[in-house]
Amino acid sequence: MFPTILMFVFSYLLGSLMPGFWIGKLFYHKDIRDEGSGNVGTTNSFRVLGTTAGIVTLLLDLLKGTAAGLLPLLFNSNINPMLVGVAAIIGHTFSIWIKFKGGKAVATSAGILLAYNPYFFTLAIAVFILVLLLTSMVSMSAMVSFSFAVVASLFYHDPILTIVTMILTIFVFYRHRTNISRIKNGTESTVPFGLYHHVRKNRYK
Predict the structure, then answer these.
(1) What pLDDT was estimated at residue 191?
(2) Where are the transmembrane segments (predicted)?
Protein backbone atom coordinates (compact mmCIF):
# COMPACT_ATOMS: atom_id res chain seq x y z
CA MET A 1 0.00 0.00 0.00
CA PHE A 2 2.75 2.46 0.94
CA PRO A 3 4.67 2.01 -2.36
CA THR A 4 1.45 2.77 -4.25
CA ILE A 5 0.88 5.96 -2.26
CA LEU A 6 4.52 6.91 -2.77
CA MET A 7 4.18 6.38 -6.52
CA PHE A 8 1.21 8.74 -6.73
CA VAL A 9 3.03 11.32 -4.59
CA PHE A 10 6.05 11.15 -6.90
CA SER A 11 3.74 11.53 -9.90
CA TYR A 12 2.15 14.63 -8.37
CA LEU A 13 5.54 16.13 -7.56
CA LEU A 14 6.80 15.46 -11.09
CA GLY A 15 3.73 17.19 -12.49
CA SER A 16 4.23 20.10 -10.11
CA LEU A 17 7.59 20.97 -11.66
CA MET A 18 7.09 24.19 -13.63
CA PRO A 19 9.88 24.60 -16.21
CA GLY A 20 8.28 27.60 -17.92
CA PHE A 21 8.04 29.50 -14.64
CA TRP A 22 11.57 28.64 -13.53
CA ILE A 23 13.18 29.26 -16.93
CA GLY A 24 11.53 32.67 -17.00
CA LYS A 25 12.75 33.51 -13.51
CA LEU A 26 16.31 32.18 -13.83
CA PHE A 27 17.27 33.11 -17.39
CA TYR A 28 14.95 35.95 -18.41
CA HIS A 29 14.17 37.54 -15.03
CA LYS A 30 10.49 37.44 -15.90
CA ASP A 31 7.47 35.96 -14.21
CA ILE A 32 5.43 34.62 -17.12
CA ARG A 33 2.34 34.74 -14.90
CA ASP A 34 2.48 38.54 -15.27
CA GLU A 35 2.65 38.58 -19.07
CA GLY A 36 0.81 37.18 -22.07
CA SER A 37 -2.02 34.91 -21.01
CA GLY A 38 -0.60 34.59 -17.51
CA ASN A 39 -0.35 30.83 -17.96
CA VAL A 40 2.82 29.00 -16.89
CA GLY A 41 2.70 26.39 -19.65
CA THR A 42 4.30 25.89 -23.03
CA THR A 43 2.22 28.28 -25.15
CA ASN A 44 2.78 31.29 -22.91
CA SER A 45 6.47 30.40 -22.62
CA PHE A 46 6.73 30.69 -26.41
CA ARG A 47 4.79 33.95 -26.32
CA VAL A 48 6.66 35.64 -23.46
CA LEU A 49 10.12 34.04 -23.44
CA GLY A 50 10.66 33.17 -27.08
CA THR A 51 11.18 30.09 -29.23
CA THR A 52 14.15 28.54 -27.42
CA ALA A 53 12.54 28.77 -23.98
CA GLY A 54 9.24 27.59 -25.43
CA ILE A 55 10.78 24.48 -26.97
CA VAL A 56 12.65 23.62 -23.75
CA THR A 57 9.45 24.10 -21.74
CA LEU A 58 7.51 21.91 -24.15
CA LEU A 59 10.06 19.10 -23.94
CA LEU A 60 10.29 19.26 -20.16
CA ASP A 61 6.50 19.37 -19.69
CA LEU A 62 6.21 16.40 -22.06
CA LEU A 63 9.04 14.57 -20.30
CA LYS A 64 7.58 14.93 -16.83
CA GLY A 65 4.32 13.37 -18.06
CA THR A 66 6.25 10.50 -19.61
CA ALA A 67 8.28 10.04 -16.41
CA ALA A 68 5.08 9.91 -14.37
CA GLY A 69 3.63 7.33 -16.76
CA LEU A 70 6.73 5.15 -16.33
CA LEU A 71 6.58 5.12 -12.53
CA PRO A 72 4.65 1.81 -12.37
CA LEU A 73 7.53 0.21 -14.26
CA LEU A 74 10.03 1.67 -11.78
CA PHE A 75 7.96 0.51 -8.81
CA ASN A 76 7.26 -2.87 -10.42
CA SER A 77 3.55 -2.17 -10.07
CA ASN A 78 0.59 -3.45 -12.07
CA ILE A 79 -1.29 -0.15 -11.73
CA ASN A 80 -2.25 1.34 -15.08
CA PRO A 81 0.19 4.14 -16.06
CA MET A 82 -2.71 6.31 -17.17
CA LEU A 83 -4.11 6.31 -13.64
CA VAL A 84 -0.74 7.22 -12.14
CA GLY A 85 -0.40 9.95 -14.74
CA VAL A 86 -3.57 11.64 -13.53
CA ALA A 87 -1.65 12.66 -10.39
CA ALA A 88 0.89 14.43 -12.61
CA ILE A 89 -1.93 16.31 -14.35
CA ILE A 90 -3.21 17.44 -10.95
CA GLY A 91 0.33 18.48 -10.04
CA HIS A 92 0.77 20.50 -13.23
CA THR A 93 -2.56 22.26 -12.73
CA PHE A 94 -2.22 22.80 -8.98
CA SER A 95 1.52 23.03 -8.42
CA ILE A 96 2.71 23.00 -4.83
CA TRP A 97 5.65 25.21 -5.86
CA ILE A 98 3.56 28.18 -7.09
CA LYS A 99 0.74 28.34 -4.57
CA PHE A 100 -1.30 25.59 -6.23
CA LYS A 101 -1.62 27.43 -9.51
CA GLY A 102 -0.54 25.90 -12.81
CA GLY A 103 -0.97 25.33 -16.51
CA LYS A 104 -3.47 23.62 -18.78
CA ALA A 105 -1.58 20.29 -18.80
CA VAL A 106 -1.74 19.66 -22.55
CA ALA A 107 1.94 18.76 -23.00
CA THR A 108 2.03 16.78 -19.74
CA SER A 109 -1.05 14.81 -20.77
CA ALA A 110 0.59 14.06 -24.10
CA GLY A 111 3.67 12.82 -22.24
CA ILE A 112 1.56 10.35 -20.30
CA LEU A 113 0.08 9.05 -23.56
CA LEU A 114 3.62 8.64 -24.89
CA ALA A 115 4.58 6.46 -21.91
CA TYR A 116 1.41 4.39 -22.19
CA ASN A 117 1.17 3.90 -25.95
CA PRO A 118 3.66 5.61 -28.31
CA TYR A 119 1.60 4.76 -31.39
CA PHE A 120 -1.54 6.29 -29.88
CA PHE A 121 0.53 9.33 -28.88
CA THR A 122 1.79 9.69 -32.47
CA LEU A 123 -1.76 9.68 -33.83
CA ALA A 124 -2.88 12.35 -31.37
CA ILE A 125 0.15 14.54 -32.10
CA ALA A 126 -0.43 14.19 -35.86
CA VAL A 127 -3.99 15.47 -35.39
CA PHE A 128 -2.72 18.30 -33.19
CA ILE A 129 -0.20 19.42 -35.82
CA LEU A 130 -2.75 19.15 -38.66
CA VAL A 131 -5.32 21.27 -36.83
CA LEU A 132 -2.63 23.78 -35.84
CA LEU A 133 -1.57 24.16 -39.48
CA LEU A 134 -5.20 24.76 -40.46
CA THR A 135 -6.40 26.98 -37.60
CA SER A 136 -3.15 28.57 -36.31
CA MET A 137 -4.61 28.12 -32.80
CA VAL A 138 -2.92 26.03 -30.13
CA SER A 139 -6.09 25.96 -28.03
CA MET A 140 -8.20 24.63 -30.89
CA SER A 141 -5.53 22.05 -31.73
CA ALA A 142 -5.43 20.81 -28.13
CA MET A 143 -9.20 20.44 -27.84
CA VAL A 144 -9.61 18.70 -31.20
CA SER A 145 -6.67 16.32 -30.68
CA PHE A 146 -7.91 15.26 -27.25
CA SER A 147 -11.42 14.75 -28.63
CA PHE A 148 -9.88 12.61 -31.35
CA ALA A 149 -8.02 10.64 -28.67
CA VAL A 150 -11.30 9.74 -26.99
CA VAL A 151 -12.81 8.46 -30.24
CA ALA A 152 -9.62 6.61 -31.21
CA SER A 153 -9.41 4.98 -27.78
CA LEU A 154 -12.70 3.18 -28.43
CA PHE A 155 -10.96 1.09 -31.10
CA TYR A 156 -8.34 -0.08 -28.60
CA HIS A 157 -10.91 -1.84 -26.39
CA ASP A 158 -9.06 -0.46 -23.38
CA PRO A 159 -11.58 0.89 -20.83
CA ILE A 160 -8.92 2.62 -18.71
CA LEU A 161 -7.50 4.42 -21.75
CA THR A 162 -10.99 5.55 -22.80
CA ILE A 163 -12.03 6.69 -19.34
CA VAL A 164 -8.81 8.60 -18.64
CA THR A 165 -8.74 10.25 -22.09
CA MET A 166 -12.37 11.31 -21.56
CA ILE A 167 -11.48 12.82 -18.18
CA LEU A 168 -8.45 14.58 -19.68
CA THR A 169 -10.53 15.90 -22.58
CA ILE A 170 -13.20 17.30 -20.26
CA PHE A 171 -10.42 18.85 -18.19
CA VAL A 172 -8.72 20.36 -21.27
CA PHE A 173 -12.01 21.89 -22.44
CA TYR A 174 -12.65 23.29 -18.96
CA ARG A 175 -9.17 24.81 -18.75
CA HIS A 176 -9.68 26.34 -22.21
CA ARG A 177 -13.11 27.80 -21.49
CA THR A 178 -11.87 31.38 -21.89
CA ASN A 179 -10.15 30.37 -25.14
CA ILE A 180 -13.46 28.96 -26.41
CA SER A 181 -15.10 32.35 -25.80
CA ARG A 182 -12.31 34.10 -27.70
CA ILE A 183 -12.57 31.62 -30.57
CA LYS A 184 -16.28 32.38 -30.85
CA ASN A 185 -15.55 36.12 -30.78
CA GLY A 186 -12.71 35.84 -33.30
CA THR A 187 -10.19 37.23 -30.83
CA GLU A 188 -8.20 34.10 -29.97
CA SER A 189 -4.41 34.38 -30.14
CA THR A 190 -2.79 32.64 -33.08
CA VAL A 191 0.68 31.37 -33.93
CA PRO A 192 2.53 33.18 -36.76
CA PHE A 193 1.97 30.38 -39.28
CA GLY A 194 -0.78 28.16 -40.62
CA LEU A 195 -3.67 28.62 -43.03
CA TYR A 196 -5.81 30.81 -40.79
CA HIS A 197 -2.89 33.13 -40.00
CA HIS A 198 -2.08 33.39 -43.72
CA VAL A 199 -5.68 34.17 -44.70
CA ARG A 200 -6.15 36.75 -41.94
CA LYS A 201 -2.81 38.41 -42.73
CA ASN A 202 -3.71 38.79 -46.41
CA ARG A 203 -7.19 40.05 -45.55
CA TYR A 204 -5.82 43.00 -43.58
CA LYS A 205 -3.03 43.98 -45.98
Answers:
(1) 86
(2) 6-28, 48-73, 79-98, 119-148, 154-174
27-36 CB contacts, 8 Å cutoff, 24+ apart:
27/53, 28/53, 33/98, 33/101
3-class secondary structure, 101? strand
* C-alpha 175: how far from chain center: 11
Which residues have CB under 8 Å from 86's CB, separation 6+? 11, 164, 167
| Low-confidence residues in the chain, pLDDT < 50 | none
Secondary structure of 25-73 in HEC code, one letter for each residue: HHHCCCCHHHCCCCCCCHHHHHHHHCHHHHHHHHHHHHHHHHHHHCHHH
Q: How far apart are CA 47 and CA 101, in angstroms?
A: 19
Q: For the chain, what is the mean pLDDT?
A: 92
Residue 36 main-chain phi, psi, to 5 deg: 60, -130
Q: Do residues 75 and 37 lie in contact, with contact meaning Cβ atoms separated by under 8 Å? A: no
Beta bridge partners of 17: none
Q: Is 95 helix (H, G, I), strand (E, B) or coil?
A: strand
∠ CA 178-12-166, nearest 5°, is: 50
